[in-house]
Amino acid sequence: MKLSEREWLIEQDKFEVSGKFETCFALTNGYIGIRGINEEVFCDETPGTYIAGVFDKSGAQVTELVNLPNPIGLRIYINREYLNPLKCEILEFKRVLDLKQGVLYRKLRLKDNKGRITTIEGFRFVSMNNKNLIVQKYNVVCENYSAVLNIESFIDATTVNSKDVPNDRVKHYEIDKKKDFADGIYLGITIKDKKYKVEIASSTKVSLNNQRCHFNRFTKDLGCIITENFEVEAKQGERYEIEKLSVLVSSREKNVGDVFETCTNKLKEFKTKSAEKLLFEHIEEYKKLWDVANIDIVGDEVANKSVKFNIFHLISMANPEDEHVSLGAKGLQGEGYKGHVFWDTEIFMLPFYIYTNPAAAKAMLMYRYNLLDAARENAKKNGYKGAQFPWESADTGEEETPKWGYDYLGNPVRIWTGDIEYHISADIAYAVMNYVGATDDIDFLLNYGSEIIIETARFWASICKYNKEKGRYEINNVIGPDEFHEHCNNNAYTNYLAKWNLLKASELCNLLLEKYPKYFEKLSKKINLSDEEPFVWQEIASKIYIPYYPDKKLIEQFEGYFNLKDFVIKEYDQNNMPVWPEGVELDKLNNYQLIKQADVVMLLYLLGEEFDDQTKKINYDYYEKRTMHKSSLSPSIYALIGVRVGETNRAYINFMRTALTDLEDNQGNTHLGIHAASLGGTWQALVFGFGGISLEKNDILNVNPWLPEKWESLKFSIWWKGNLFDFTITKDNVEVKKRVEKGSVKLKIKGQEVTI
Fold first, then answer.
1. What does the pLDDT look like over 180-229, one tens digit per residue?
2. Strands 734-740 and 723-729: what pairing?
3. Are residues 667 and 661 in contact, defined by beta-carbon separation less than 8 angstroms?
4. What backbone torsions phi and psi does residue 191 show, to the nearest 5 degrees?
5. What is residue 657's predicted lDDT score, i.e. its pLDDT?
6. Residue 578 in contact with residue 572, Cβ under 8 Å?
7. DSSP states of 136-176 as a string?
8. Catalytic site residues?
9. Sign (positive/negative) of CA torsion 298, 299, 301, 304?
């Protein structure tokens, strides 16, 4: 295969086993995720094979995404001696992730202890065109010898979750059967608690000059591993091709029928095509996705490549065809956060899909709608009304947050986020309106979205408590976005989003009653909505307490925050990340003004139209000096707001922090999976920050960009109300072209209103 231009390539030049590369080089198509391990599977690697939505709890603290058997194993033996790269001299090594094509390329040139030199070169991909398929193709050349080669292909069911954490290690499946069949080898499993069936079939062939060339084929059942072996009389200098196709099918899929038959029939179907044909079809799907999602930054090579890396993983993770799964905080690239879905999806990732792949965005919101009954039950269980969405969600919509974890010193601590980090319910309502506003998808609003917004408003109405003495409504004992501080009263972000949710629900009821009375009547009957409720919501919203000091224009993160001991960040590490100020005790963070991530600043972004420019600047300046960015969610928001308040130097610094989160592993935990929210935050910082895209109250798209000094131009595309716009921004000019036409649209470009 021919690799793309250098700007599209993420390269590894030194042979090493690295959890960071396993994550960064992971491949997924929204259905299957495969970590970027080597085909040989070395002992220090963490194989990870995941199917979206296949969760299980058996033996674990909470329900988690299951690490399935590894289907991509390949090893080579010379005269029946294992060619182990770890015991060879590495003459040449290269691994390259081609972002444009969605392909992982590898080249190994090895010299063993007998002086034999072998070159292995090829690629693998998880098909974007055929969601159940993984393709591997490699060429093997015996450079200075002839010998009998054994090509061993295997499916490995020794995998477990939390491989390196003894307290959490668990195997979530039982092996049902293994067999050698006409087209290859097969391994079937059953997930212990959920009883999902997952079937894996693989077929391997070895060719010379397009002709099968093995003189012997045999299989071995090794308990948890099944292998398919091919023996070849290899001649010096000849190029032998290894092609392996693997198919994964789960009983979660719609209309799957007999899982074994479906799996093996798909394999037979794919075998009728060459690896090159399957690769071509796969690349064509990526072309369609990149056609809208690509961003070009001219003049800044590092920023340009890192942005493409972020977007690659975003476009790879989505599956518009499944409305019962969403995106976990670590994607399908690792087991971090157990594969759970947080607010990360709706607030950080969803905007990317809303503006580049609306069908994927709708599917993710439908995941929330399909779990709305579970959210109602969650609220009822906790003594509230309406719908309370869980802080961590898997497949049932129940709360999946672990009760215990570890602090920065390794001490066991109680995790309270699942109990009192309530703001996610408003975040989801916000995402619904964000989607509808950008797409004009009224059918979604009428049939699904309005119910989410009204039921979350009911939750806020029931959790707000009236303080008669102070004449205000309060929300006490919460955790806001900043998770350093627990059991807070009147967190500004939480209270303001609750207020927004209540007012938006009331406003929506009026809209439905006026324009869509039949829908409103049907919905009202379904959820027993009274005529009085919208007025009650307005009353509560008008009296919700926001800790704000109008004389200073300063928003207090929560009531009493300004009374805490104050530290200001003064030092930064080699990755330009904040260093803990001297004197800070890491097990007493609740006592300091230092914060984990954007909280008040997050509010300034989401509800920016509520605050004037001076308020934004004052609060940005105050909280930026106290934010440790210990969540990857944080730098992107400071980059975006930094542009808007004129702190452009700091904006660029924070932008590079978020763009390089995984490539530089600046959070120190990339091995656990991709920082999916940071991917989405990077895109938002570019488009809504440097690109200057924002929405004014009168539904006009405002464009007011600013470019860093070294950037010559910024190019991106977005869908807006059914129209596809291409933007090319330079320091002196904004060029807008409409590729897909639905109707005339008003834009305001650098203060000047235009109609396109």
1. 988 899 999 999 999 999 999 999 999 999 999 999 999 999 999 999 99
2. antiparallel
3. yes
4. -70, 135
5. 96
6. yes
7. EEEEEEESS--EEEEEEEEEE----BSTT-TTT-B--EEEE
8. 483
9. negative
